[in-house]
Write a structure and sequence with these properties.
The complex is a heterodimer.
Chain A (H helix, E strand, L loop, with lengths): L1 H11 L12 H7 L3 H30 L20 H23 L1 H7 L10 H13 L4 H29 L11 H15 L8
Helix pairs in contact in A: 1-7, 3-4, 3-6, 3-7, 4-5, 4-6
Chain B lengths: L5 H8 L15 H6 L4 H25 L8 H23 L1 H7 L10 H9 L6 H31 L1 E2 L2 E2 L3 H5 L6 H4 L1 H18 L7
Antiparallel strand pairs in B: 1-2
Helix pairs in contact in B: 1-7, 3-4, 3-5, 3-6, 3-7, 4-5, 7-10
The chains are: A mainly alpha, B mainly alpha.
Chain lengths: 205, 209
């Protein structure tokens, strides 16, 4: 239980997807123009992370890893399919994105319209594939840990994009040097937020 | 149609500055921030992305008339994933140390927006040779930014370039100290912001309101 709590808190704050690893920056910068849309995208990303991480974890540990096919019988003990990991992870993620897209279109057409092209592009959001790859690299002990890690990363990502959107809404009234408007100033704000988040590093429960 | 007609030259050179994928089109930002704390991984990453974008562009452009529109994203992802898997295995075999430093970011080339952006915007509507040039141009445009940021961060952060000591010992004796902040992730954003600032004050038509 303690391990779960610790991973949850760490993945939100000190291992924040955006401020520590810069994953999902493209949609982070492009969709953070108003809070409502940002929140919608954040929830969609969290949902996909929570769904895909446990599935990818099970695939990794029972199919792809070296010796993972042992449960089929001793003659499979030496099969190593890890070179297929990238392909399988991305296929699972793309399938789930399609699902979420259909659900959002059905239940919230206004959100669907405002997310536009970025909804199908969640499939290529680095934060989601990054979650699966970090899961593979860190070799979590069981499927619960992987799910909690997905949930925490998603919440951390949502927190970051909503904060950014709130700041950018206010920025509309500020007097920024012309060449810095838009992209430039968003970079600087992200960087300052990243420095603020660095004070969470080393946080332990 | 010459191999390097005027239009093709535009396709190749445009992304280097006026149409740069990172600082103008806002694509592929994630990896350009994370791998640039040293110059060497930045160069390797730039080359890998250039190779993957160029060949993915060619393959998709050859297949463009046979891919059904509805499933094109999945087809593109599969092509990219296969190419990235090859690049990642090659890096593991020939540049193991760099591969360790790049960690998950090699795999993340698949989700690099430059890749999908160029496939969607260019390869689906143009022939293989133009697409190849477009891929090379965009890959190099990305690599330039990576190398610039990597150069600044390694020089000021560790006083070295490609691992060689550049700032002489005499400076340290006089009290010069490496700037540890530059190594930390947030500074990469500030450096890119400064590049954007400079670039947009030179090219006024790119400024946003």
């Amino acid at each position: 239980m303690e391990e779960l709590l610790s991973i949850f808190v760490r993945s939100i704050f000190s291992d924040n997807m955006i401020f520590t690893y810069y994953l999902g920056m493209c949609s982070f910068l492009a969709v953070s123009k108003n809070v409502k849309t940002a929140l919608g995208l954040g929830i969609a990303v969290t949902f996909i992370l929570v769904c895909t991480l446990p599935i990818n974890y099970l695939l990794e540990n029972y199919v792809l890893k070296e010796g993972a096919l042992q449960w089929l019988g001793p003659e499979y003990a030496e099969v190593n399919l890890s070179f297929l990991a990238l392909l399988i992870f991305i296929a699972i993620i793309a399938a789930f994105t399609q699902l979420v897209e259909m659900v959002v279109e059905k239940f919230s057409p206004s959100l669907y319209a405002s997310l536009g092209i970025f909804l199908p592009l969640i499939a290529v959001n680095c934060a989601i594939l990054g979650g699966s790859l970090f899961m593979q690299q860190r070799a979590f002990s069981n499927v619960g840990v992987a799910t909690v890690y997905g949930l925490g990363s998603g919440i951390g990502w949502t927190l970051a994009i909503v904060g950014m959107a709130a700041i950018r809404e206010k920025l509309a009234y500020s007097d920024i040097p012309k060449p810095l408007r838009g992209l430039g100033i968003s970079f600087i704000i992200t960087s300052l937020m990243g420095i603020a988040f660095m004070c969470f590093s080393g946080l332990k429960i | 149609m010459g191999l390097l007609s005027k239009k093709n030259k535009e396709v190749l050179v445009g992304p280097l500055s006026m149409n740069n994928p990172v600082i103008v089109q806002m694509l592929g930002i994630c990896s350009s921030l994370a791998v640039t704390s040293k110059l060497e991984p930045a160069i390797v990453m730039g080359i890998s992305v250039t190779v993957v974008v160029a060949f993915a562009n060619v393959i998709i452009s050859l297949l463009r008339n046979t891919i059904p529109n509805r499933i094109r994203i999945i087809v593109q992802l599969v092509v990219c994933a296969a190419l990235v898997a090859i690049v990642s295995e090659v890096l593991k075999a020939f540049a193991y140390d760099v591969n360790k430093q790049l960690s998950v970011y090699v795999g993340l080339i698949i989700t690099n927006c430059i890749l999908m952006g160029r496939l969607e915007a260019f390869a689906l509507g143009n022939g293989p040779w133009e697409s190849f040039l477009d891929g090379i141009g965009n890959g190099l445009g990305y690599a330039i930014i990576l190398v610039l940021v990597g150069f600044v961060r390694e020089l000021f952060g560790s006083g070295t370039l490609l691992g060689f000591q550049v700032i002489p010992q005499a400076f340290y004796d006089m009290g010069y100290v490496n700037n540890g902040l530059v190594i930390l992730p947030p500074m990469a954003l500030i450096i890119i912001a400064l590049i954007v600032w400079y670039h947009r004050s030179r090219n006024k038509e790119l400024q946003e309101n």
